[in-house]
C-alpha cells in the first residue's frame, strides 16, 4: 500500500534523502503549535492558584482558600465547576473545531490550517489578557481551543509527511517537546507574575501567550507545504519541486511516483470517515482511539493543568506550589528530549512498557504517603515528605514524557494509510480532546471525593494500558508508512485477521504484490509475532 510523507521505497529501501535545513526549520516552525498548546495547559493551573485572579472571577473559591468560608476537606478547596470550566472549555472548543480542521487540512493543505490556528490563538490571547468578566474569559478560552483543534490536526500530519523515515519519530516528537517547553515557560511566567504587586500578574500570564501564537502564525507563513498535500490536491509539478527541495536531491522520481500512486488510491475513497470503519482499517482506528484515551487516563493532564493547585492542596505555600510546578515542567522537557533520542533506536513498545512500570510504582507510593500524611483537616506533610512527593511526581512525569506523551501522537500519525490519514488524525485529535475535557472538568471534583485515592485510580489505568501495549500494540519503528499493512498489521497475531479484505470498493490494492509472491487473494501468508 503506497503512502506519503516518508523516504522509503516499496521494497523497504530508503529513497535518497538528505536531512536538509529546510526540513529542520519547517519542522521547528510547525512544532510551535505545540508550544502554544503547552502554554495554554500550563498557564491555566498557575493563574487559578493566584488569589487576585480567584478573587475577581471565582470569589467562592477565593473565600475557601483564604479559609473565610468553611470547607469539609482540604481536598475540596478548589472543587468548583466554574473554575474547572475555565480550564476545560478550551478542550471542548478544540474538539468542535477539529471537524472543520479536518476538512481544511485535506482540501487546502496543512499550512492554511496552521495559519488559522495561529489567528485563533492571537484572538484568544487578547480576550484572556483583557478579560473583565467570566464570560470574556471563557470566550477567550474557546478561541484558544479552536486554535488547538486546528494545530493538533495539522502539525502532526505536517511533521510525519515532511520528515525522512529514519528521523520521522524524532522530528514528530518536536511537537510534544514544544508542548512541554510551553508548559515549563508558563510555569516560569506564573512564578514571576505571582510576585507582581497590584494583583494584575495573571493578565501578564495570560497575555504572554501571544508570543507562541505569533511564532506559529509566522511559521505557517514561512514553511513549505508538504508534497503529499500538493499531490493530493493535483499540484503535481509543485509537489515534485517541493520534494526536491526538502530531500536535497534531484533523484526524487521513485518517491514522487509513490506519492502519486498513494494520491490516486486516496481519491478512490469518497467517504474517508466511513472508510475508517471498514474492517481493514479497524486495527489502526482501535489503536489510535485507545492511545488517546489511555494518554489522558495516565493522569498527566490532571497534574499538568492543576500542578500548583494540587501542591497547594497538599500544604505547599503559593510560591512553593508554583516553584514545584516549575520543577515538574523542567523534568517534562528534559525527558521528552530523551524520547527524541531513543524512539527510533529502542522502539515505541519498549518505551511504553518501561514507563508503565515507572508510572505505576510512583503513583502507588504517592497515594500511600498522602493517605497517611494529608487528612481532611490537616496537611501534616513535613518538608522531607513534601520533597519526596515532588520527587515521585517528577519520576512519574519523566516516565510519561518519554513515552505516552509523544508516542500517543506519533503512533497514530504514522499508522493510517493516506486515504484515511486526515480522517484518522481527526478522530485521534477528537478523542484526545474529548477525554482531556473530561479529565479537566472532573479532576478537582474527583480530588475532593477520591482524596489520595485519585493516584490509585490513575495507577490502575496505567496497569490496564501497559497490558494493552504488551499484547495489542505492534512495533512501528523504522517502518515506512506505506509498508505498515504488509510489515506490521499482516504480521500481528490478532490484527492480521482484519487484513483479509484489503481492497477499496472492490478494487484490489495489493493484488499485484500478492500475485508476485504467489499468494491467492484472501490467503494469510504471515506468521504470529
From TrEMBL:
Chain segments annotated as transmembrane: 19-39, 82-101, 113-131, 137-159, 171-192, 204-224, 285-309, 321-343, 350-372, 384-405, 426-446, 452-473
Cellular localisation: Membrane
Alphabetical UniProt keywords: Membrane, Sugar transport, Symport, Transmembrane, Transmembrane helix, Transport
Pfam families given in the database record: Sugar_tr
Gene3D superfamilies xref list: MFS general substrate transporter like domains (1.20.1250.20)
SUPFAM superfamilies in alphabetical order: MFS general substrate transporter
Domain Major facilitator superfamily (MFS) profile residue range list: 26-477
Bilayer topology term: Multi-pass membrane protein
Cited CDD domains: MFS_STP
Keyword Cytoplasm: no
Chief location bin: membrane
UniProt cross-references to InterPro entries, sorted A to Z: MFS_dom, MFS_STP/MST-like_plant, MFS_sugar_transport-like, MFS_trans_sf, STP/PLT_plant, Sugar/inositol_transpt, Sugar_transporter_CS
Family the entry assigns: Belongs to the major facilitator superfamily. Sugar transporter (TC 2.A.1.1) family.
Name recorded for this polypeptide: Sugar transport protein 13-like
Originating organism: Prunus mume (Japanese apricot)
Lineage: Eukaryota, Viridiplantae, Streptophyta, Embryophyta, Tracheophyta
